[in-house]
Amino acid sequence: MTRVLILGGGGMVGQKLAHALMDEGLPGAEPLVITLHDLGFPEEGADIPDKRVGNLANIAEGAALAAERFDVIYQLASVVSGEAEMDFDKGWQTNLWPMWHFLEALRAQHRASGGSYRPKVIFTSSIAVFGGPYPEIIPDDFATSPQTSYGAQKAACELLVQDFSRKGFIEGMSLRLPTICVRPGKPNLASSSFFSGIIRDPLNGEDAQLPVPDWVRHWHASPRSAAGFLRHAATLDHAQLEGRTALNLPGISCTVAEQIEALRDVAGADVAARIKPLLDDRIMNIVKGWPTAFDPARARALGFTAEGSFREIIETYIADDLPLDTRQS
Amino acid sequence: MTRVLILGGGGMVGQKLAHALMDEGLPGAEPLVITLHDLGFPEEGADIPDKRVGNLANIAEGAALAAERFDVIYQLASVVSGEAEMDFDKGWQTNLWPMWHFLEALRAQHRASGGSYRPKVIFTSSIAVFGGPYPEIIPDDFATSPQTSYGAQKAACELLVQDFSRKGFIEGMSLRLPTICVRPGKPNLASSSFFSGIIRDPLNGEDAQLPVPDWVRHWHASPRSAAGFLRHAATLDHAQLEGRTALNLPGISCTVAEQIEALRDVAGADVAARIKPLLDDRIMNIVKGWPTAFDPARARALGFTAEGSFREIIETYIADDLPLDTRQS
User: Fold this and answer.
1) How many CB atoms lie within 10 A of CB A113?
2) Does B9 lie in the same domain as B143?
3) Per residue in B286-310, is it b (16+ CB within 10 Å) or e — as a string?
């Protein structure tokens, strides 16, 4: 029996991961017992009995979870980019300090076990750890120089994960997720939310605002790929990371114009016409600092895979989430 | 009147900086009033009346210092690399958390001033923020992937300095100092201490242990250059950093064999013969993860300069520190 904890398990990616783990398990692992933890859970969410409502910012709560000695721990909980940028205190107090205290609690368990307890800890980082100027294609050894508080918090957590892993307290890994697109459901406060909105909302019969020029290029992967990355990460031998525990992941680099073109191809010109340009300087100021294309050679060599085209990303959304979204709206 | 605070002002670099500021001031600044802060001060140290004995790990003490609203704040205080590696708790509790609380205290002063108080904060980071594998020459946009706790702590502080600066609370900068060589005085617990010892001790008539093979290549600058970097940093317009507040600095890349050869050239074969190879796996395991050569193009363009050869570094030591060391020994 392999015991899996998903922190942030009530969120969109957490739910996708929970479903994927329930349906497919983990290759090479024993049957899974899954625990979800979050501030709350969706009503029609994954059918997992062990759902804990709580807040990791409560240090004692993190310590109590650590004391259960899960085998695999996914840490997906965070304040999103737009919110962390607007509320400096909330961003740092949510996205960095609870992670430190939770890692310290895992280290205490490692010590109490005489060194035998060393959980896999898979942290969802983000391409927001990067800052420009960028080369056309970003290599795996490119500097992190975040231009948002969210990115700085993710990068700081990566450093903690790497050092706690290097010391042997955990087997940690940080996955720098591409922007997840197409997100089902309602928009969130992430500054990247519109990248999903301009596909999802027209497919659901609604207009969508486009707050940036259509030449903006960005780096995307589907929710299905995100869940796939997270599952795959748990199957790796930690030694394969060779001490560099943060990974740039595969994705699709395309412009907003190419996104729109793919939507037109898949769903027709009428649907694509529901996208309404309305520039938003606040969003554009954040987005313009983001990276646009990667060569994720290490992750590919380690077996991580994603979609091959943005059209495929749209088709994944239609297959996995469109009926659900339509039902919700 | 420009008020300067040097945290870690009792240390070797802090003292060099204090002397340099007393002797030469800051170009373009008003006359300086200097305050030093540290756990203690050398008896024959810089003749500065305002020396505060204290500990930044005391959060209230950092807040009280912040409330004095210094114009320029140098943050040089830290546990060194070897000690941070041996004592995980002490490293993180000394090298990261006090920095966070001190920056928060400066932010509170910024807010209390209605936004007008925005001190220059110059943080001494280190090339220990890097981890291999490395290209032959490391460019300015190379990834930080620290392989020591010390490096992880410095990299995490860099992220804080950059985000607090981006938000306009401070005008911060992180200087990734080369290994400072030749350090005068006694060896310290830094894993890099021997790079100085093999030059200093023979010049002072003593044998020196060399714990690594002589093909080890490393990146050096003199204490005089370190003080020069720190002085120069305070004269820059913050906008020149273009949001990337961590800088790789100029230095000399050479092997231990080249260090020894330069010592032989300057002081003769008898002096160089006082270097005794005695491999130390613990030191070698740390040193082998360190970078060896940089192209610090940004720092050079911003006017930072260092020595042109390792021979010059030895000559700087002889000119600045040898009589003092001989007197001490």
Assistant:
1) 11
2) yes
3) bbebbbbbbbbebbeebebebbeeb
User: Is residue B155 within 8 angstroms of chain A, CB to CB?
Assistant: yes
- The H or E element that residue A1 is part of is none
pTM of the model: 0.96
Helix (H, G, I), strand (E, B) or coil at B36: strand
Q: Is B301 on the interface with A (CB under 8 A)?
A: no
Q: How do residues A85-128 score in pLDDT, each as one tens digit? A: 999 999 999 999 999 999 999 999 999 999 999 999 999 999 99
- CATH code for the domain in which residue B197 is found: 3.90.25.10
For A297-311, the pLDDT digits (tens) are: 999 999 999 999 999
Whether chain B has a CB inside 8 Å of the CB on A49: the answer is no
Min Cα distance B319 → chain A (Å) is 38
Between CA B329 and CA B195 the distance in angstroms is 19
Q: Which domain holds residue A135?
A: 2-177+222-248
Among the partner-chain residues A131, A143, A243, the one whose CB lies closest to the CB of B144 is: A143
Could you read off the pLDDT of A136-151 as tens digits, one per residue?
Answer: 999 999 999 999 999 9
How many domains is chain A built from? 2
User: Which residues of A are catalytic, by number?
Assistant: 150
In terms of domains, do A102 and A229 share one?
A: yes
Residue A129 lies in a domain: yes
Q: Are A156 and B159 inside 8 Å of each other by CB?
A: yes
CA distance A45 to A19: 9
Helix, strand, coil percentages (3-state) for chain B, rounded to 5, are 45, 15, 40
Q: Is the ipTM here above 0.90? A: yes
Domain check: are A86 and A233 in the same one? Answer: yes
